[in-house]
Amino acid sequence: MAISAYIVPQATRSAIVMALALAVPCALIGLFGSNPMITTVTNFLIMLIAVSALGLFSGNSGILSFGHCAFMALGAQISATLTIPPALKKTAFPLLADPILQSQFGLVMALLASVLIVGLIAYLIGLAICRLNGSSATIATLGLLIIVESLIVAAQGFTRGNQAVYGIPKLATWPVALAFAIGTIVIARLYRDSRVGLLLRAARENHAAAQSIGIDIPAQRQVAWVASAMLSALAGALLAHFLTVFSAKQFYFDLAFAIIVMQVVGGLSSVAGSVAGAVLVTAAIEMLRRLENGIDFGLFQVPQIFGLTQIGLCLIVLAILYTRREGLMGFAEIDRFLPFLRKREELATEAAAPTQARPTGTLTLEKVSKAYGGLLAVAEVDLELRVGEVLGLIGPNGSGKTTLLGCIAGTHAPSGGRVRIDDIDITGHPAHEVARQGIGRTFQNIRLFAHMTAAENVMAALTQRWPQLGHAELVRRSRHLLDELKIADLAEREAGTLAYGQQRRLEIARALALEPRFLLLDEPAAGMNESETADLLGILGWLVKDRGLGLLVVDHDMQLIMRLCDRIAVLNKGQLIALGSAAEVQASRAVREAYLGRRHAEVIT
Amino acid sequence: MAKNIGKYGALLATIMAVAPFCAAQAQDAIKIGFVGGFTGYLAPYDQPTLQGIELAVEQINKAGGIDGKQIELISRDMRSDTAQAAVTAQEVVDQGVQVMIAPCDVDPAVATGQITQAAQIPTIAACASTPILPGMVGDYMFANYTADNLQATALADYALEQGYKNALVLLSRDTPYTEMLPRYFATVFEKKGGTVAATLEFKMGQQDFSAEVTKIKELSPAPDVVMTAAYEPDFPAFIRQLRSAGITAPVLGSDGIDSPTTLELGEVAEGVVFSNAGYPTPGSALEKFNADFKAHFGEEPSAIFTATGYDVIKVVEAAVKATGGNLEGPALRDAIDNLENVAVATGSITYKGMNRVPLRVVALNKVQGGQKVHVANVTPNGADVPPAQ
């Protein structure tokens, strides 16, 4: 395992700059500021930990979470329980076991315990929540928040129930909060560019494409979920040691919304965004609440108006989201605005391109069927695809081509039959496992990781396939692949901003990063003009001849199919009605009937 | 944008320039701070409290102040946020207040109290009703509002007086108020010879009370009285379902149901008795307060918290008079702690011997024909009030 795949130099520089930008003003206020200012800064730093923790999961996975507030609540409960003096503890938590009642721990031990216990709890909950996608996952985190709050209230005796927990030692001073805030943003920033962060961001950008390069999405979410839960627990515990009093309702929807607002205003998918959001909201509140108390201008007076802070803050948030829909920072880190952070990594001396043995093997379909209720979309199809050959799959609209492709790629579970690579049965395996067996794919409507750079698109696949590779090697190999597809100069561009033909090339480069034996191409020429199509033909020919891959190509462009394919399979109404060379298929009466209808087919015959 | 920054800069500069003058001008005044939740979930409590406080300050200042000293009130919004309460409290303390008034909920009141306790500034929580609050902070923290255990004692005394022997208690663990007030009631009721037949629990907002009502119906012997601290929307739902099940046992409630909704419930609420912090009987101080309030603000008081807010200032006035104008923290604290029978808007207040949770009048009221009818003003015996938990 290469440590440099986790601690990427550019991310490290970016994290250090952010840490300094945070540390200097906070330390100045801490050393020279008034008490209220120090209190405000400490509160800000703790909120920043909470926001960065949420961002680590939500920003990279794309799943908004209310549940992190629940982890804060648990962190606060555990840390408070361990640090309250024994005399007070006896009346506050009468049901606790004696060893806990009689002991009192310091801040470090208490934080460590809350972080570890919450990590374990989050791991168990994550097993369920990380399997859910999109809004159902968000709703599940909402449920988590409600359940945890109810449990804390119900567990009176072990907790304080609905009453305030008090007598918590005030241990979260500003240097403590600052140290942990720096630690948190460094972790969040390093995670984002690390190989695990890359894999999770890929999954956020496109679920199906991530699976197609072998990413086990729930497993990647689980990593971020547990890490962010632990950091949330830290934030909660620090908040408890800062306020010294809290009740269950402190860690509920109000706080969850406050954290989410900071993250969304700053930019949901960026660590710099977490910092920007927390700074902006805090600064706006501090400015507005001073205006709120009324001002004497000499000539006229503005009276004290309560509520100005809330209203003003809402207006600022609305204005920002109106002008910048993805928040202040959007998907960007500070690196984008500070070129010196981006200086090219010293690449390892250009070694020879990794020598790849020509792949071997045969992909075999045996009586593969897929039924939707009574409808048989694919009916007992037998096919073979060898390495080094191009098999075309054609058929009228609705004939089951894409479904059959899905049955191979693992996005659809076949209802009958078997899919094998040599002797390995991959029938019904999840898409990411099929990919790991050496089957790459591209999609009918190109599916890239749009907010990631072209290089990152390829690197995600590379690091998935070769977890032991270090960062420099990932960069080098990704350049090599992009170069092979003639898009090396676009490496640092966001994938979503590329032209159509370039996007298709990138999609192929990404699939090749897996070193697949077989490549499934779903309408690769759809929407392409003639020169783009010719271009594509060149690439596909190279894949077969030079790389020795087996291609399965679905397309409506008959010219392309006839020119490219060694053999052509024709599907109609889910059934394989012809299989053979271009000439054989063209001569088939069944094929013509399928495309033209029986009467026309007869006329032509 | 740059223009706006300039504008705000000018505003901030103005504030900074003006602030020292404000401080200087008030050398000889009594400075009272009020850190309140004037926005957010505490606004329905802290806003009326502020009105009452402002009225009291104005009346006293117009009459020449306390022993010649004017009162200067510094009120700041902590937006119902505990962390902000600590920040705001520190700022107000830094302005040199001699007395602090804390917000209406326990968490921010404790956060405020910890700042003032360290600065030795006597602090009064205007309307938090949890009696453990002063104990949570220390010897500079005082409660003001009718504490839950005091109210419960008044209700238990009333129940026993009526000859009820067998009580049913309905509580919810969702808030300290809905849980502890009925528990305090049960403690006093049992200690004085009553029996609690059953304690049932509900979830706030559950609407369907059929399970609870069925359990009450099955009780044998049937309870003589049903006691709860439920309020809207739980109380109306509960009493409708209770009455429609044919249970006629009298119902006792607390100040949570002191609202027009209860009076508008019609037949089902008839005869419900509930406690609150005061009733404006003819000739009472509360009646005068209500009239003064209307004259000053042009509207009826929206809640009893206006009057209890007024009370806080009357307590401060009595304490300052007792120290002979000494505004030092320890002297003021001791003075408040020894106050007895201070005449306030809601009746009278005694701190002496009460561990900083005042003994004050509890009014009992009955719903009769859609009207709130006064039953009695009672001041429970301090020894009967159960210890705060």
TrEMBL record, chain A:
Keywords in alphabetical order, please: ATP-binding, Cell membrane, Membrane, Nucleotide-binding, Transmembrane, Transmembrane helix, Transport
User: One Pfam family name from the record?
Assistant: BCA_ABC_TP_C
Q: Which PROSITE patterns match?
A: ABC_TRANSPORTER_1 (PS00211), ABC_TRANSPORTER_2 (PS50893)
Residue intervals passing through the bilayer: 12-32, 38-57, 69-88, 108-130, 137-159, 171-191, 223-243, 255-285, 297-322
What does the record list as GO biological process? D-alanine transmembrane transport; L-alanine transport; L-isoleucine import across plasma membrane; L-valine import across plasma membrane
Q: What does the record say about its membrane topology?
A: Multi-pass membrane protein
MF term (GO), any:
L-valine transmembrane transporter activity
Protein location: Cell membrane
All copies of domain ABC transporter, residue ranges? 363-598
Q: According to the lineage, what is the superkingdom?
A: Bacteria
Supply one GO CC term from the record.
Answer: plasma membrane
| PANTHER family found in the cross-reference section | AMINO ACID ABC TRANSPORTER ATP-BINDING PROTEIN (PTHR45772:SF7), CONSERVED COMPONENT OF ABC TRANSPORTER FOR NATURAL AMINO ACIDS-RELATED (PTHR45772)
Name listed for the protein in its UniProt record: Amino acid/amide ABC transporter membrane protein 2 (HAAT family) /amino acid/amide ABC transporter ATP-binding protein 1 (HAAT family)
User: Which organism is this protein's natural source?
Assistant: Dongia mobilis
Classification from the root reads: Bacteria, Pseudomonadati, Pseudomonadota, Alphaproteobacteria, Rhodospirillales
TrEMBL record, chain B:
Signal peptide boundaries: 1-26
- Which terms are listed as keywords in the entry? Amino-acid transport, Signal, Transport
Q: Which InterPro entries match?
A: BCAA_transport (IPR051010), Leu-bd (IPR028081), Leu_Ile_Val-bd (IPR000709), Peripla_BP_I (IPR028082)
GO BP terms: amino acid transport
Q: Which residues form the Leucine-binding protein domain?
A: 30-369
Return the Gene3D superfamilies for the record: 3.40.50.2300
> Which Pfam families did the record assign?
Peripla_BP_6 (PF13458)
Q: PANTHER family recorded for this chain? A: LEUCINE-SPECIFIC-BINDING PROTEIN, PERIPLASMIC BINDING PROTEIN OF ABC TRANSPORTER FOR NATURAL AMINO ACIDS
Family from the record: Belongs to the leucine-binding protein family.
What name does UniProt use for this protein? Answer: Amino acid/amide ABC transporter substrate-binding protein (HAAT family)
Q: Which organism is it from?
A: Dongia mobilis
